[in-house]
Amino acid sequence: MDWLERVTGLRQWSRNGTRAPHKPLLLLYALGRFQQDADGALLYSAVEADLRRLLAEYGPPHRTTPAYPFHHLTSDGVWEVRTAHGAGSPGPGVSELRDSRAAGRLAPELRAALRREPGLAGRMARVLLDSHFPPSLHGELCDAVGLDLEPAVDLPLLAARRQRRDRRLRELVLDAYAYQCAFCGYDGKLGGLAVGLEAAHVHWWAFGGPDTVDNGLCLCSLHHNLFDRGALGVDDGRRVLVSQRFAGGSPAARAHVTELAGRPLLRPRPGVSDVAVTHLAWHSRHVFRDGPRPVAHA
């Protein structure tokens, strides 16, 4: 059985491009726990808070429940659930899972394959990360689920997918914005080379966003991470949005984040396509969290 193809083909709820990374997050969490305890099962009531936190931080902007993937992942052949009454999930309801003492773990065949192939967990994790999350979040997401990735290896299954990404995009986007962060204007260089600047996809590549300049922003590392986490956004008037959910009372947090609210986005140089409204709308709908903070300075 090709487990990489299996996790690539996870069945997920989808409507109008909505992000639904519930199953990938649960599977990443389960792989991390498998590395720590290969024989342990995950009692729903014991891991519910962890899974809820992962969904709040890395899932879609709207509130959701970890009961959904805990039950439905069983249909993908990688996960099993047992209750006090025997094998099988009692359903997707929170109360049902709690009351029946439902416990889940990776399917027996997958656990056996992971024991035979020590590098399989890392390869599966890379498929999940590449398919559902932007690269800026991969490291911290692995830390959040306790997953230890092994050194990168070539994955034939993903080779064609990787080749479709335009490796020139970073330079094209940075050049379009004159090597300045479109949010704060940072333009640092080291030895004449840009440092701490990245090309951010507005409409995530993992969800069909193109590798084009009109889907890119030149952002410093801090603002790239906050943009991908939904703490920052851009409205259709191309002004910076700061999520109401963001909190930071230090002078640094105010200067680098909250005081950006309402600031005009740095525009690309003449002759270069501006960020497409359709891509901004996708980010606002699927990534930006809650409503924007009020603009303190107009």
Describe the 3D structure.
This protein has 298 residues and is of the alpha+beta class. It contains 13 helices and 10 strands. The chain folds into 2 domains: 161 residues, no CATH class; 118 residues, no CATH class. It is 40% helix and 11% strand. The strands form 4 sheets. Strands 1-4-2-3 form a 4-stranded antiparallel β-sheet. A two-stranded antiparallel ribbon has the order 5-6. α2 crosses α3 and α2 packs antiparallel against α7. The protein is elongated and about 65 Å long. InterPro entries: DNA-SBD_ScoMcrA (IPR058813), HNH_nuc (IPR003615), PT_DNA_restrict (IPR011396). Pfam families: DNA-SBD_ScoMcrA, HNH_2. This is HNH endonuclease.
List descriptors.
single chain; 298 residues; alpha+beta; 2 domains; four-stranded antiparallel beta sheet; two-stranded antiparallel ribbon; 10 strands; 11% strand
Give a brief outline of the structure:
With 298 residues, the chain is an alpha+beta fold. Helices cover 40% and strands 11% of the residues.
